[in-house]
Structures are given as C-alpha cells and as structure tokens.
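Technical note accompanying the year-one report. For the benefit of new consortium partners, we illustrate the data format agreed upon in the data management plan: each record pairs a sequence with a structure-token string. No post-processing was applied to the example shown here.
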Amino acid sequence: CIIGSNAVVEHCIIGNNCKIGNNVSIGGEGFGFEDISETNEIKTFPHIGIVEIGNNVRIGSSTCIDRASIGSTTISNNVKIDNLVHISHNVFIGQNSKIVAMTIIGGSTSIGQNTWVAPGSAIRDWVKVGNDVLVGLGAVVTKNIVDNLAVVGNPAKPILKTTDRYRG
C-alpha cells in the first residue's frame, strides 16, 4: 500500500495494494449528535466502529471517510474514490464501484457493486443504491435506487439507460 503525505489513518483495516492520496482523513469520528429534549442539550453520539478497506482500492487526495458509529464503514475490493469525496459513518460501498469528485454520501447508506457516482452528487443518509447504477452529474439522491438504473437531477429521477458509458 501507498499512503500519501499528511494522510491521517486511524481505526482502520486496509487491504493489499491500496493507494491513499495526500491529505486524506480515514477513521475519524463522524457527525453524530442527539438532541436531549429534557435538558435542551445536544450530546455527541460516540463513534466506536472502524473503517474496513478492501484490496486494490484507490482513495484520492483530500477525501474524508468517517468510521462507523458501531460496526464498520466498508469500502469493498477494487473501489475507486476520486479526490474531495466525503463518505459518512456506516456507509457500505460494493466492489468495483467508482465515486467521483465532490460527492457526498450520507451515513448508513449502501451502494451496490459496479456503480458509478458522478461528480458533485449527494446521496442522503439511509439510502440504498443498487448494483450497476449510474448516478448522474450533480444528482441529489433522496430515495432508494434499484439495480441497473440511471438517475439524474434534483431530486434524482430515473432516465433510460441506453448506452454503455464507455462505449457510447
């Protein structure tokens, strides 16, 4: 594995043949708070989980991957993550998926295998994105997406997937 300059990696298990870019943060505490109505306080919800990174994973510079509150945030084998991506706590990303720059993935979200998440996309917490899905440029995903679908827009809506993105 190669870990770039100024990367901070904690509470994490890393597979073989991974490349982690410069200024990456992996395994830090996520954004977890609970409102206590009786006292009008906001308490921190502890994050005691880990991040599990599979084999042959690439994580681009200035990306942040939060550790799980309980259990694990999982980046499966062969996942490629671009620069400037935020992956929240308890997220699962299936193998061979690609997450492109400026994407934000909310907590407890699941992304299937062979899925492409285009630049500037936002996926809300607790959403399930299926296998072989294409999330279009700047899409805002607020609901579950079934397998083999392409979605675009805000909120993300399905469109006909007529071509292979690499072959036109």
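Partners are asked to follow this layout when depositing records. The two ends are 34 Å apart (CA to CA).
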